[in-house]
Amino acid sequence: MLPSPVTYTTLMNGYCEQGNINGMLELLREMKEKAVHPTHVTGTVVIKGLCQQGKLQEAVQSSRLRGKAFQLHNEMLMHNLKPTPVTYNVLINGLCVYGDLNDADRLLISVDDCNINLSKVAYTTLIKAHCAKELCKVMLNAFRRGGDSSSVFQLLAEMIKSGFPPD
Fold first, then answer.
1. Rounded CA separation 63/128 (Å)
2. Where does the record place a coiled coil (predicted)?
3. How many CA atoms lie within 13 A of 32 on its CB side?
4. Helix, strand or coil for residue 128?
5. pLDDT at residue 97, as a whole number
6. Which terminus in the chain has less CB density within 10 A, N or C?
7. Contact in structure between 36 and 5 (CB atoms under 8 Å)
8. 3-state secondary structure of 18
9. Count of the separate structural domains present in the chain
10. 148 within domain boundaries
11. Which alpha helices (DSSP H) does 19-84 contain, by range?
12. What CATH number is attached to the domain comprising 56?
């Protein structure tokens, strides 16, 4: 007896919550090998896991995982699995966490063009990320004008670490 897509998705979510990205991806491979068709919920769980794992990795590693998340999104579309607003919330949040606000903005516009109704979570996430970046710019300018080079360097380091490189 084959496990159902719901069983696989539940197990994958458990791996995701534990931060075990390899276990989650292994179950996804097993699903494909056994011709168990993932659902849109499966796709969302895997994207969430990839984005969460990316937060914990080096910048190079996280961009690779983020790329995998978008690859999975495209595969969902190709297999007629309609991503839900939750899927897009997860992707927008992942982009904001990485400081990739331009791609987050573009994703929001494309989702809006497709008449997908996002929850206020996606909009709030994007607004907060933009505000955080702008606040950092204001603080940098204030430190520079005040001649506080130590604070300038500390804030720059924190901005870069948080995915908000200075313009």
1. 21
2. none
3. 8
4. helix
5. 75
6. N
7. yes
8. helix
9. 1
10. no
11. 21-33, 40-55, 59-78
12. 1.25.40.10
pTM: 0.59
| Widest CA span in the chain | 70
11 neighbors 36 (Cβ within 8 angstroms): no
Residue by residue, pLDDT tens for the chain (167 residues) are 888 999 999 999 999 888 888 898 899 899 989 999 888 888 888 888 877 776 434 333 445 555 666 777 777 777 777 778 888 888 888 888 777 788 888 888 888 777 788 888 888 888 888 887 777 777 767 777 788 777 767 766 776 666 656 66
154 lies in a domain?
no
Residues near 111 by beta carbon (within 8 Å), at least 6 away in sequence: 88, 118
Query: Residue 60: which domain range?
Result: 5-128
How many CA atoms are closer than 13 Å to the CA of 107, on its beta-carbon side? 24
Residue 65's nearest CA partner among 90, 30, 39, 84 is 90
